[in-house]
Write a structure and sequence with these properties.
alpha+beta, 36% strand
């Protein structure tokens, strides 16, 4: 009887050691400041001017709806050139880049993004003339995506 208990306990210890801890499974929040500085060339983005529609609670991080609307006349002289989407807890924080021009008509993007858990999503809009706008949005994700289940 003692041998069976020993084998069962040994098996339980080996199984626990093989599984990564919850802290290792989830991606910690990353500092996106260097990435923003690289894109903006050191120019400080202005806060606001961007409307973000992102659910406050997303049941599944695999497909989270996102709508971005940047206030811009979209004329030849004043228009949005790029819209960047950052997610600080994703393995790769730069989620998407959208290229626009004056012929786009409106600076509006409707898409779905994949999120690796509860985090802040930051939108950066590059405007003609070297100006930048930035706005954050928080989302609570109940079932995280972007995790490599093969390593679990």
């Amino acid at each position: 009887m003692k041998r069976r208990r020993f084998l069962a306990a040994s098996g339980a210890v080996a199984a626990c050691a093989a599984l990564p801890s919850a802290a290792q499974r989830f991606q910690p929040s990353q500092d996106i400041t260097p990435l923003l500085a690289k894109i903006t060339g050191g120019v400080t983005p202005q806060r606001g001017g961007i409307e973000i529609e992102l659910p406050q609670i997303a049941e599944n991080g695999n497909s989270v709806p996102l709508r971005i609307d940047v206030a811009s006349p979209m004329s030849a002289q004043d228009h949005v050139t790029e819209i960047y989407v950052f997610a600080e807890r994703n393995p790769r924080p730069l989620v998407a880049t959208f290229h626009l021009g004056p012929d786009s008509g409106r600076a509006e993007i409707v898409t779905r993004v994949r999120l690796a858990g509860t985090q802040k999503v930051t939108i950066l809009a590059a405007l003609s003339g070297g100006r930048f706008l930035m706005a954050p949005a928080d989302v609570l994700v109940t079932a995280a995506a972007c995790l490599d289940e093969a390593t679990l």
